[in-house]
Structure formats: C-alpha cells, structure tokens
Amino acid sequence: MILLLYGSLDFAVNNVAAGADRAPVTDISEKDWDRVTSISQKGVWLGLKHEIPALLDSGGGAIVNTASHAGIRGSPGRTPYSASKHGVVGLTRSVALEFATDGIRVNAVCPTIVNTPALRSMSPEEQDEVTAGVPMGRPADPAEVASVIMWLCSDDASFVTGHALPVDGGQTQR
C-alpha cells in the first residue's frame, strides 16, 4: 500500500508487543508462550520480511524495531515477554549485518514503561510500583521514544546499525 501511494519506502518501524500475566516460568502455559512470542517476535520478523524488499527497491533506508529494556536485562515473572523481546534484539542485530552493504540500517529501541493510557489506568500505587526501577523516577513520555526512533530513521544516524538502544531512564544500568 505504501509503495502504491508514495512510490518508495524510506523507513519502517515495527512496534508490536503482547504480554501475559506475571507468573513463574513453570506456571506459563504453552498457549500463553506461543501467543506472546507469535505477536512480539514473529510480528517483527514478518515486518522485516516484507519491508526489506521495498527498501532494497528504494535504494536503502532504515528500520527500527521496538524491543524493551526486558529484552536486554530480562524480567522475572515475564519470561515470554522478555524472551520475545530478546528475540527482537537478536533479529535486529542479525538483519542489520545481513543488509548493511545494501544500505539498510536496522536498529531497535528498548523503552522502559511508557506513559500510555494503560499505565494511566493503573492505580497510583501500581504506577509507583512499575516505575520504581527507573532511576529517573518516572515513565518515558511517548514523544521521548518517538524522537529516538525518528533519529534512528534519519540521515543523522547514517552510520548506526545493529544497535539496541535503551530509552529507559537508566533502568538497564541497574
């Protein structure tokens, strides 16, 4: 559809995620595991699979995949989510190497909790709990994550590929 409307693809962003109830790995059902990894990891792979040919036809470009701080450090009780986001980081790094000589840059952003309607629907106590691990003491603003994505898609990041960039208020440094 993009190619029909605009004639080329310059950049793409794969922003998919699915979660499951917090549980020890021994209590996670195969159904929950498959659902989370199918959406969060396979969804990014499918995006890459279809975006890359269009970017090749356009002479190159950039792709940004949304992973998570949990895809860098892990997240107890959230094994399917964390594993799927680790998979997104692995996809990002592998595909970046595969297509670097073709002028396609592939990176990932790894945000912490973001100030979304889902976060705002939580009680103040729940909000405090989920942001407690963020050294800057607050969730990310969506615009803060978006500005990093736009930088990675821009010519200012023309020599940046294969990175998983935390946008997490220092959370992965703990």
From TrEMBL:
The keyword Ligase does not apply. Keywords: Oxidoreductase. Belongs to the short-chain dehydrogenases/reductases (SDR) family. PANTHER family: DEHYDROGENASES, SHORT CHAIN, ESTRADIOL 17-BETA-DEHYDROGENASE 8-RELATED. It comes from the Archaea. The keyword Oxidoreductase applies. This is SDR family oxidoreductase. GO terms for molecular function: oxidoreductase activity.
